[in-house]
Amino acid sequence: MGPPGAGKGTQAKFIAEHFGIPAISTGDIFRANVSRGTELGVEAKRYMDAGEYVPDEVTNLMVRNRIDEPDAEPGFMLDGYPRTLAQVEELDGMIKHTGHALDAVVVLTVDQEEVVQRLLQRAETEGRADDTADVIRRRQEIYGEETAPLIEVYRDRGLLIEVDGLGEVDEVTRRIFDALDVVPQS
Ligand code: AMP
What is the pLDDT of residue 86? Predict the structure, then answer.
């Protein structure tokens, strides 16, 4: 977890590689569908371009299907999901069904100003449609409203690992590994 621009996507890939499990990024799956022009992509794009969340039913079904794939059988790392309380509940049901358990929830803590700068920079290098100043603002806002409250939910469950997301990428990766390597795996 962490606000848009915290470095979730970058770090998720390193974590997945480290543990030999797939990184499942809802944002990446949506973007792949947008570029293939699928029905899901057409629906998701409307929300993504405005910086809004794709409706829970759509997102939940997509994650459910993805974690049913054979490569996720040994375990998986979710990037950008869950983002709402309804998604937390849905994920609880999904992992119970597959016999998995949630081992840890990593939150990257970052300075809001720094994050906005990162996103504006990414707009220049990657040209993502949702990296314009207005949409960036809306994405930060909706994160605060819908997703930030999940931090307390997972803290109460004893699963939360807060990592300082500022600094060099490999420094942040090392902080995450140091914290995750001592978590007992289910
Ligand atoms: P991301 O790459 O994680 O920043 O996601 C890009 C966009 O995809 C978000 O701004 C949302 O529009 C959509 N999205 C990704 N994950 C979710 C989710 N768990 N729930 C709803 N919308 C999502």
Answer: 98
Residue 130 confidence (pLDDT): 81
- Residue numbers of the chain with a pLDDT score lower than 50: none
Query: Residue 113: which H helix or E strand, with range?
Result: helix 112-126
Reply yes or no on whether 139 is catalytic.
yes
Q: Among 54, 87, 83, which Cα is nearest to 146's? A: 83
**What is the rounded CA–CA span in Å between residue 176 and residue 170?**
10
Residue 147: the pLDDT is 98
Q: Enumerate residues 6+ apart whose C-beta is below 8 A from 53.
A: 47, 59, 83, 84, 142, 146
User: Hey, what are 83's tokens?
Assistant: 């983002």
DSSP 19-75: HT--EEEHHHHHHHHHHHT-HHHHHHHHHHTTTPPPPHHHHHHHHHHHHTSGGGTT-
Of 64, 128, 138, 174, which residue is the catalytic one?
128
Q: Which atom of ligand 1 is nearest to the CA of 51?
A: 10
- Testing ligand 1's pocket by substitution, the residue of 45, 52, 83 carrying the most ligand atoms inside 8 A of its CB is 83
Domains of the chain: 8-180 (3.40.50.300)
State residue 186's pLDDT score: 75
Q: Terminus-to-terminus CA distance in the chain, angstroms? A: 20
Q: Which residue has the tokens 């590994």?
A: 177
